[in-house]
Write a structure and sequence with these properties.
heterodimer, A: 115 residues, mainly beta, seven-stranded mixed β-sheet, four-stranded antiparallel β-sheet, 11 strands, 0% helix, globular, B: mainly beta, six-stranded mixed β-sheet, five-stranded antiparallel β-sheet
């Protein structure tokens, strides 16, 4: 299979704090991982693409200093939302692509609520 | 112009009918095409991929690709209420850049 996990599945935090979300490919090596954000009743919005061992590529309008992405290994990428504010409350979903493959496999998502 | 366009729906079909979902894309060099299903509050789940012109069948699902018309479709035969979800079309241009449509909401009525 191609299983991707995310942790935590749900997090509630106070405004101004930082939150780290982990994305792991459990049974394959992911050369590329993607981070998406989805607001209620809206489509997926790609935030950034990360390749193992290199800096992430951010989409236009996404602040790289606010959304820190680290892809330290072929099975783990992390997204840190720094100084979170209520408007950052959203459903964050990661996906992973197998090396040489075209398919993306999604993690179960992390629902972030910033009070 | 968006890279991938889908009708947002909702598309309503009775149980047992064929549901037809459509998608157009703008980049002619796109090579890989995918359909994902997303239930409310959940992340997308890959249900079909197609890479060459024609039809590809998997159980009750058939994906159809027409590169000349830049058109991808998904047919769901014998639709079930459990098929009710939002269906996302995705296109990969082989530079590891994926583009998703906004999704079509499907309602299958018992």
């Amino acid at each position: 299979g191609a299983v991707v996990s995310q942790h935590p599945s749900r997090v509630i935090c106070k405004s101004g704090t930082s939150v780290k979300i982990e994305c792991r490919s459990l049974d394959f090596q992911a050369t590329t991982m993607f981070w998406y954000r989805q607001f209620p009743k809206q489509s997926l919005m790609l935030m950034a693409t990360s390749n193992e061992g290199s800096k992430a590529t951010y989409e236009q309008g996404v602040e790289k200093d606010k959304f820190l992405i680290n892809h330290a290994s072929l099975t783990l990428s992390t997204l840190t939302v720094t100084s979170a504010h209520p408007e950052d409350s959203s459903f964050y979903i990661c996906s992973a692509a197998r090396g040489g493959g075209n398919e993306q496999f999604f993690g179960p998502g992390t629902r972030l609520t910033v009070l | 112009q968006k890279e991938v366009e889908q009708n947002s729906g909702p598309l309503s079909v009775p149980e047992g009918a064929i549901a037809s979902l459509n998608c157009t894309y703008s980049d002619r060099v796109s090579q890989s095409f995918f359909w994902y299903r997303q239930y409310s509050g959940k992340s997308p789940e890959l249900i079909m991929s197609i890479y060459s012109n024609g039809d590809k069948e998997d159980g009750r699902f058939t994906a159809q690709l027409n590169k000349a018309s830049q058109y991808v479709s998904l047919l769901i035969r014998d639709s079930q209420p459990s098929d009710s979800a939002t269906y996302l079309c995705a296109v990969n241009n082989n530079f590891n850049k994926f583009y998703f449509g906004s999704g079509t909401k499907l309602n299958v009525k018992p």
